[in-house]
Specification:
There is one protein chain. By secondary structure, the protein is an alpha/beta fold. It folds into 3 domains: 12-341, Metallo-dependent phosphatases (Purple Acid Phosphatase, chain A, domain 2, 4-Layer Sandwich); 353-545 and 700-715, 5'-Nucleotidase, C-terminal domain (5'-nucleotidase,  domain 2), CATH 3.90.780; 550-672, Immunoglobulin-like, CATH 2.60.40. It is 23% helix and 27% strand. It is built from 19 helices and 37 strands. The strands form 9 sheets. It has a 7-stranded mixed β-sheet.
Length: 739
């Protein structure tokens, strides 16, 4: 059957594709008028590209980029923001240009619920239709192992390129090319791909295969492409933004870099040492393009923002003629891709689209899970601690790598569907239970810290946890954890604990890989967490509980001063030094927390620039302190860093999730309780025998429902090569990425 375009007119080449699905990647299938029925009405009218250098003719080429779809057909939160509308905008840009290419930059097979279920087959079908000229390999292409990746590459009717991945014979990895040339107009365009140097630790990549360094792999590709007659050389990148500037300064002959591993959205393309760097996000929010002349110089560029209803354009729309915004309601869906989406998603939506549980609060499953403790991270790791119950194992600690929490969305408050959980935990990773020492717990928490100077994302704890709390610091060579508590009690370095984690992280952690695995559950994370949440009788309401507390500077212990006559209106003031590296304290940011995670907020704070007086309600602070024996009370607060005090070549804090730095001061429990005067020497003795650990703890029993049905469906696959991520009771599994 011949598909119709959005204006109702049949287009022969597209029809040929739909009927035969056998068109070669080199065939050009641009259809003038393919979106003639599409409204171009938008919040800001689409303007003509602004000329930077030369006029467009056969001596220019426009490169539309990128993909980075993560195995999704639509945004996890906004279904109208989808591949069918995205491709309509791509076609609009392509049809406005005389000579144009469409380049992807990988991470197209996974991670997502669809990726987990179909292992990229659905995306290959979509990309084949979208007439992509080349796609750079990303780490998520290998989430289901090398065999599955190779099969998907070979099913593709366009080339996959990656210059720095080599097999054990030093050749391009199976199903890919290291670089290609494309003829467009009078120009020859050379294209190569690049992935992270740490590819072995990011995904299921064979140990015997080689990963070249960024500069080495790039320079070899550029030199080869120039020898093959390339007028322009372009990198379809899947490396981090910061690496791009290194490549621009150290690789000779590289004209442009498009896309990235970081999902960064630039206001305009950057030019570094003559190399153009163009990054316009990932998935479906933006369509970007650059136009180059025969010398590889930037002529024009465009960025189109796709906006859901009620979302206002960013300020750049008014600042740049090259940036436009289009309402999703005014973008017609490509009919074929809309039908394809329905075909691939209908079955899973029927199974998992119903309400799984309810939440009284909004659940933060965004990429904040790399940077800060989140309520979603607490909820899912609490659920992971139930995994050993059927084997009479009481799990003390659960942890989850931040990169394994995907979707970058929030959910609730209200009814939460099962698809939300599966989109957030889409990897084929199983939960394992390890026996670890207290010292291994400390070592693992410390090894996970991502310290400054990381200018892409800043210092991060990079995990979520349950059953353990700690302080952490991440400044260059000063990386440490302190005040580590398991179940609210100080960690014992010689004691043994049961720790639950996913098999990907266990296999890639220098610390956890040395621990004994006492239980291979065979349970995929997503279905297990979903099943636990389905079993909740009441709406969940997870909170942040001081499980991971950032500390940038520790100051001397607080001086404690009581005011008033002891009634409930009385106050206690804690006085601490302003940190050396502070410009100004944030006066509404102070709290005292104890080892169980319980805390109380300050009523006020006042600083003279040298010290800060932090005032608490006496009754509230005393109740907090005396409720727990040896509470290990600490005062935490935020401050704006003094840029001159920090030896970084960029402005701090430079960290996702943090607007400021954090200070810590120990607080004498005895002084707060009035048992002795305190001038800031510190004394942690106090209190009663009660000790309540925060968090809802492991649930009483496993429950059935959609999560269990989904896991059962995955485990009963035939293993005929269509499902490369199967796992047996022996615990062998395909490892997958956290990035």
């Amino acid at each position: 059957m011949t598909k119709q375009s959005s204006d109702g007119n049949s287009h022969d080449k597209r029809a040929d594709f739909i009927q035969t699905e056998n068109v070669t990647a080199s065939t050009r299938r641009r259809f003038l008028g393919a979106t003639a029925g599409t409204s171009l009405a938008s919040l800001v009218p689409i303007s003509a590209s602004t000329t930077v250098g030369a006029e467009e003719d056969d001596e220019t080429v426009t490169i539309v980029h990128d993909t980075h779809f993560h195995g999704r057909f639509q945004d996890a939160e906004e279904g109208e923001l989808n591949i069918a509308r995205y491709y309509t905008v791509v076609q609009d840009v392509l049809e406005d240009e005389d000579n144009a290419l469409f380049l992807g930059n990988g991470d197209d097979f996974a991670p997502s619920m669809l990726g987990l279920e179909y292992e990229g087959k659905h995306m290959v079908e979509a990309l084949n239709y979208m007439d992509i000229d080349a796609d750079g390999v990303g780490n998520h292409e290998y989430d289901f192992g090398a065999d599955v990746a190779t099969e998907r590459f070979e099913e593709s009717e366009f080339p996959w390129v990656v210059a720095n991945l080599l097999d054990d014979e030093g050749e391009a990895v199976p199903g890919t090319e290291r670089w290609i040339t494309i003829e467009e107009g009078d120009l020859t365009i050379g294209v190569f791909g690049l992935v992270s140097e740490t590819f072995h630790s990011l995904t299921d990549y064979p140990e015997e295969w080689e990963v070249l360094g960024y500069v080495e792999g790039s320079q070899e590709a550029v030199d080869a492409l120039r020898d093959e007659g390339a007028d322009i050389v372009v990198l379809a990148s899947h490396v981090s933004t910061g690496v791009h500037y290194t490549l621009a300064s150290e690789v000779d002959g590289l004209d442009a870099i498009v896309g990235s591993h970081s999902g960064v959205v630039l206001e305009e393309p950057a030019i570094e040492d003559g190399t153009i760097i163009s990054e316009f996000g990932d998935e479906f929010d933006h369509v970007g393009s650059i136009t180059l002349d025969a010398d590889g110089d930037l002529v024009n560029w465009q960025r189109t923002d796709l906006l859901p209803e009620g979302v206002d354009p960013t300020p750049e729309v008014d600042e740049y003629d090259e940036i436009s915004a289009r309402n999703l309601a005014d973008i017609e869906e490509d009919e074929y891709l809309a039908d394809l989406t329905e075909e691939w998603t209908e079955e899973l939506e029927d199974e998992l689209g119903q309400t799984a549980f309810e939440s009284e609060v909004e659940l933060n499953a965004t990429f904040d899970n790399y940077a800060i403790e989140t309520n979603w991270g607490n909820l899912m790791t609490d659920a992971m601690r139930t995994v050993g119950e059927t084997d009479d194992i009481e799990v003390d600690i659960a942890a989850q790598n931040g990169g394994g929490i995907r979707g970058d969305s929030t959910y609730g408050p209200g009814e939460i569907p099962g698809t939300a959980v599966m989109d957030t935990l889409p990897f084929p990773n199983t939960i394992e239970v390890l026996e670890v020492t207290g010292q291994q717990v400390v070592d693992y928490l410390e090894e996970e810290i991502r310290p400054l100077p990381d200018q892409d994302f800043g210092a991060q704890p990079a995990i979520q946890v349950s059953g353990v709390s700690y302080e952490w610091s991440g400044h260059e060579d000063d990386v440490w954890v302190d005040n580590v508590f398991v179940g609210g009690e100080p960690v014992d370095s010689d004691e043994t604990y049961y720790l639950a984690h996913n098999d990907y992280t266990v296999g890639n952690s220098p610390t956890l890989s040395e621990a004994e695995v006492v239980l291979e559950t065979g349970q995929f994370q997503g279905p297990h967490v979903l099943e636990e949440l389905e079993s909740e009788d009441e709406p969940v309401a997870p909170e942040r509980e001081n499980r991971m507390i950032r500390v940038d500077e520790a100051v001397d212990s607080a001086a404690v001063e009581e005011a008033g006559d002891g009634d409930e209106s009385d106050e206690i003031t804690l006085t601490v030094d302003v940190p050396d590296g502070a410009d100004e304290v944030v006066e509404d940011s102070f709290r005292v927390a104890i080892r169980t995670g319980a805390d109380v907020d300050a009523e006020s704070a006042d600083s003279d620039g040298e010290t800060v007086d932090v005032t608490f309600d006496e009754a509230a602070l005393v109740d907090l302190i005396e409720d727990v024996d040896e509470p290990v009370a600490r005062l935490f607060g935020s401050y704006e860093p003094d840029q001159d005090s920090w030896d970084y070549e960029f402005d701090v804090p430079a960290s996702d999730g943090y607007d400021n730095f954090k200070l810590k001061s120990d607080v004498s429990a005895s002084a707060v309780l009035g048992e002795e005067p305190d001038n800031g020497d510190g004394d942690d003795e106090s209190g009663s025998d009660e000790d309540e650990t925060p968090g809802f703890g492991p649930a009483a029993a496993l429950a059935g429902g959609a999560g269990g049905a989904y896991l059962y469906a995955r485990n009963r696959s035939t293993g005929d090569g269509e499902s490369g991520g199967e796992r047996g009771l022996d615990g062998e599994a395909n490892k997958t990425t956290d990035a």
